[in-house]
């Protein structure tokens, strides 16, 4: 009877009307009043008399609980609630900034200012120092660069994960400061 429309895709599908195969169901009326345990055919007739749908709301109960309601309206309300919940959540993006172990001070300040902008926008920042060739023998230089980076960004961000080696990169994460 009802198809799964695109905007309602995430709402879990409930069994309705003829899809309910149980012999007996515990019925809840439109007003929320318990009618009791009735044969499913009688429950379906009661729903059709009121020009509404019979919806199985608790399939694991013994006997399963069914409710008489307007299923289209119910799905619409659930989609609206889900959309509202999505609107209220904050999505945190991870922005990446790449450095080299022998970066100049001015270049470091430019990258740090970019990171400060990301942190003010509420994003996480992944700062990585890439080592090439012989630079792998001087990872302490990369640690110094990240130390300077932390100093510059300390007003708006805090270190989430300390610097550590991941392959040829030394990586750390910064998060915005919470007041």
From TrEMBL:
One GO MF term: ribosome binding
CC per GO annotation: cytosol; membrane
Record key words, sorted: Cytoplasm, Initiation factor, Protein biosynthesis
Domain Translation initiation factor 3 N-terminal: 16-85
Localization terms from the record: Cytoplasm
Top-level taxon in the UniProt lineage: Bacteria
Domain (Translation initiation factor 3 C-terminal): residue spans on this chain: 92-177
Gene Ontology BP annotations: ribosome disassembly
Keyword Protein biosynthesis: yes
Annotated SUPFAM superfamilies: Translation initiation factor IF3, C-terminal domain (SSF55200), Translation initiation factor IF3, N-terminal domain (SSF54364)
Gene3D superfamilies: Translation initiation factor 3 (IF-3), C-terminal domain, Translation initiation factor 3 (IF-3), N-terminal domain
InterPro entries per record: T_IF-3_C_sf, T_IF-3_N_sf, Translation_initiation_fac3_CS, Translation_initiation_fac_3, Translation_initiation_fac_3_C, Translation_initiation_fac_3_N
Function: IF-3 binds to the 30S ribosomal subunit and shifts the equilibrium between 70S ribosomes and their 50S and 30S subunits in favor of the free subunits, thus enhancing the availability of 30S subunits on which protein synthesis initiation begins.
The protein's assembly and partners: Monomer.
PANTHER family given in the database record: TRANSLATION INITIATION FACTOR IF-3, TRANSLATION INITIATION FACTOR IF-3, MITOCHONDRIAL
NCBIfam families: infC
Family statement: Belongs to the IF-3 family.
Protein name in UniProt: Translation initiation factor IF-3
